[in-house]
């Protein structure tokens, strides 16, 4: 199902302030990943010099980003005359339907803002599973997608760095002998996952003894787990927490079995689009746009991804 929606005025526009220098971003990212902040600030003079040098480089590159790079991205992303953005309603952290039935969420806000900056009309193409989104990207039926980074998908897709980090978790019955995530991978354990999801791909590689059972979509995982009397349900922690409130007699295992990095993706070979979107997503993180979208849509269990350290997205 598709719904053509042009960029509305009620989606906040991000600040155009440029993010800090790559060196500073790297130190901040490291601090976020470890949970600690540097105890002592850098010497003021060295800090000012570093920012001045980085600022000069950023200013020198701005013209290219806003003119040449933008033009190349607009050509690749708007080849049909509009930006077709895939919206996955199967992941409630990324998108859901609003009271009026229209898609809403952080992925919708990012897609609309990107289209506005590129001067393109936008078409939101709605899917119910990540697997369906990936197939649409491979077939070039959409120009932009919001998907979890995975090496299998990289064969058909170009990624940005992640913009949101979410957790994968396990759900079991209250009477299950399983107490830790490490207990799941044992003979006789059947783990149900959403077909083609990030955790399906991850667990396909990681589980050695347990067996995977695939539900058609991620929202269907818990019901299949219950109806088929399976041992474990795997999925996005927020989705499983909501399911635990909906049904009785189940619990989540403590912690997480994986970190899911959500990024923007485009069909393979569209490097101008990837380059522009990579700079765009870094600005959206640094400006607070992503954090504000998560708050506005009352999303729990997700965090803004740290700034990229300058490595090329894989």
Report on the structure:
The protein has 2 domains: 2-164 and 261-304, Periplasmic binding protein-like II (D-Maltodextrin-Binding Protein, domain 2, 3-Layer(aba) Sandwich), CATH 3.40.190.10; 166-258, D-Maltodextrin-Binding Protein, domain 2. The protein contains 9 helices and 14 strands. It has helices at 22-34, 44-77, 106-118, 130-138, 198-206, 221-227, 237-246, 271-287, 289-296, and strands spanning 2-4, 83-88, 96-97, 103-104, 122-127, 145-148, 157-159, 164-173, 190-194, 211-215, 232-236, 250-252, 258-267, 302-304. Strands 6, 7, 8, 9, 10, 11, 12, 13 and 14 form a 9-stranded mixed sheet that branches. The longest helix is centred in the first third of the chain and has 34 residues, at 44-77. The protein is elongated and about 60 Å long. The two termini are 30 Å apart. Residues 5-64 have low confidence and may be disordered.
Helix content estimate: 25-40%
How many domains in all? 2
Q: What sort of overall outline do the alpha carbons produce when their principal axes are compared? A: elongated
Number of strands: 14
**Uncertain residue ranges:** 5-64
Which band does the percent of strand residues land in?
Answer: 15-25%
Arithmetic mean of pLDDT = 82
Largest sheet composition: 9 strands, mixed
- Report the span from N to C terminus: 30 Å
Q: What series of H and E elements makes up the topology? A: EHHEEEHEHEEEEHEHEHEEHHE
Task: Count helical runs.
Answer: 9
Query: And the CATH topology of the largest domain?
Result: D-Maltodextrin-Binding Protein, domain 2
CATH class of the largest domain: Alpha Beta
Query: CATH H-level name of the largest domain... which superfamily?
Result: Periplasmic binding protein-like II
Q: Kindly name the structural category.
A: alpha+beta
Cα gyration radius (Å):
21 Å
CATH architecture of the largest domain: 3-Layer(aba) Sandwich
